[in-house]
Write a structure and sequence with these properties.
Blueprint (H helix, E strand, L loop, with lengths): L6 E9 L2 E2 L1 H8 L2 H6 L6 E8 L6 H14 L3 E2 L24 E3 L10 H21 L4
Parallel strand pairs: 1-3, 3-4, 3-5
Antiparallel strand pairs: 1-2
Length: 137
Amino acid sequence: ELAQYDCILFGTSSRFGNMAAQMKAFLDATGGLWMAGSLVGKVGGVFTSTATQHGGQESTLLTFMTYLFHQGMVVVGLPYTFQGQMTMDEISGCSPYGASTIAGGRGERMPSANELAGARFQGKHAASIAKRLAGVP
């Protein structure tokens, strides 16, 4: 199904600063798409969740992006025009590499309003780029 989409935002939890093994297994199964060039030129991005504030959000996003580059995708992050990623008012996820949240060790923390706003911003940003690449006004 992935080849049918113009824009794909992948979400994964973080395990020791990298994507979850289940996501890696899913991506490893897309070799046929790579061989056919099916995802070349499509917009791609990543968002993540970690248990702690310094649980590897940025490294997870960056290491995931290597898959997108190998597939020939146009990688879209979360630009600094989303100023919520610079907040000092609360502990919050989000970076220029993509939206993120801190879930807590037992999943007890829900995404903050700022983190949700970052995710929405990234989604709209990626969709607007996909539309432009497709020549949709």
